[in-house]
Amino acid sequence: MIDRIPWPVWRVALVVVFGGFVSMLDTSLVNVGLDSIAADLGASLASAQWIASGYLIALAVSLPLCGWLGRKVGVGRLWLWSFGAFTVASGLCALAGDLGWLVALRVLQGVSAGLLVPAGQTVLGQAVGPQRLGRVMSILGIAVSTGPAIGPTLGGLLLNSLSWPWLFLINLPIGVAGIGLGLKYVPRGERGAAPRLDWSGLILISVGLPMFVYAVSRWSERATLADTSVLVPLVLGFAGLLAFAARSWRRANALVDLRLFRDPVFAAATVVTAFAGATLFGAMLLFPLYFQVLRGADVITTGLSLFSLGLGTAIVAPLGGRLTDRYGGGIVALWGNVLTLVTTAPFAFLGAHTDAVTVQALLFLRGMAIALATMPAGAAAYAAVRRDQLPDATTTVNIMQRIGGALGGALFAVVLAAALPRGAESAFQQAFWWVSVASVGSVVCAAWLWLAQRSARAAQRTPAAMP
Question: At what angle are helices 75-95 and 99-128 packed, to 10 degrees?
Answer without folding.
Answer: 160
